[in-house]
Design brief:
Strand order of the largest sheet: 1-2-3-4-5
Number of strands: 5
Radius of gyration: 14 Å
Structural class: alpha+beta
Order of helices and strands: HHEEEEE
Length: 110
């Protein structure tokens, strides 16, 4: 499922850069619709959205639940977990620089 990792860094509604056929794109869009429905019904991801500034280490820890993934960010390093299964999917850097998955609590979709 490498295409999912690529999709996480695209704007919603755009096809991935490489490695996805029509079925992969349709499946990802259906998963996103399901994730949005779960968010509207306030069904939680594996962990709840939050932000914490660790006074001991100076790290900023942020958790965001979006339609496809739960994103755990430590400073600028991001760790992606599948929204429905909680399975680890991959890492990235600076998800707040890649809309619509902005990692700040002020920008979490309702």
């Amino acid at each position: 499922m490498q295409y999912l990792h690529i999709v996480t860094h695209q704007y919603e509604g755009q096809a991935p850069i490489t490695g996805a056929n029509t079925w992969d794109i349709i499946k990802t869009r259906l998963l996103a619709m399901l994730g949005r429905m779960l968010n509207r019904r306030q069904i939680p991801g594996t962990i709840q959205p939050m932000s914490y500034d660790d006074p001991l280490t100076g790290d900023r820890i942020t958790v965001v639940v979006n339609p496809l993934f739960t994103v755990l960010s430590v400073n600028t390093r991001d760790y992606y977990f599948h929204r429905l299964t909680g399975r680890f999917d991959g890492t990235g850097t600076g998800c707040s620089a890649n809309p619509p998955f902005d990692c700040t609590l002020d920008n979490i979709p309702e």
